[in-house]
Amino acid sequence: MAYDPDVRASDADRDRTAALLREHHALGRLTPDEFNERLDKTFAAATIGQLEQLLTDLPRMDLYRLPDAEMTRQPRQAQPKTRSAGHMSGGWRAVWGVYLTVNLVCLVVYVLSGAGYPWFLWVAGPWGALLAGTYWSFGAGRSGRRRLGPGSDQGQLPGGSG
Predict the structure, then answer these.
(1) Which of 58, 96, 123, 141 is 20 to 30 A removed from 8 (C-alpha atoms)?
(2) Residue 5 lies in a domain
(3) 123 contacts 106 by C-beta, under 8 angstroms
């Protein structure tokens, strides 16, 4: 279909032009008076050609383009996503930290209360066994993540079947 500047403009066309004008104003290309004048003309425009006339002296912009790596101050370096054997993920370290903290509090209460029966073991034992079993059964305690085949570790959940 050929371009026709006499085609009637839609509300979406006017909104898109207004957004472009706002962006150019924010970047300092338009003074407040120029911006307000063009904005009034934008919402009064009846055709695509009238809307384009408001943008002819401004550089073209794509408001919907996603930012790319060149826009960051310090580009990120790609980090390998493999874990060496014997290292826990941050989530597992947090879980074990909570476990140890709660059991330390129970031990302190036990010692300060002078109770003869070691009741704190009823907290530490089953909870620790459950955590250890979960940690080892899902492969977290083994040598890193399970691999499903060459190049198949991207986009896969850890511990997936295959």
Answers:
(1) 58
(2) yes
(3) yes
Q: Is residue 80 part of a domain?
A: no
CA distance 51 to 108: 75
Same domain, 5 and 44: yes
Report pLDDT digits (tens) over 3-52.
788 999 999 999 999 999 999 999 899 999 999 999 999 999 999 999 99
Q: Please tell me the distance from the alpha carbon of residue 22 to that of residue 58, in angstroms, as a whole number.
A: 12
- Which range marks the domain in which residue 119 is found? 90-137
SS3 for 6-22, per residue?
CCECCHHHHHHHHHHHH
pLDDT > 70 fraction of the chain, expressed in percent and rounded: 67
Evaluate whether 144 touches 83 at the Cβ level (below 8 Å).
Answer: yes
| Residue ranges of E strands in 20-160 | none
Cα 91 to Cα 83, 96, 111, 133: the distances in Å are 14, 9, 30, 16
Question: How many folded domains does the chain comprise?
Answer: 2
Q: How far apart are CA 113 and CA 115, in angstroms?
A: 5
Q: What is the pTM of this model?
A: 0.40
111 in the same domain as 52: no
Between CA 53 and CA 41 the distance in angstroms is: 10
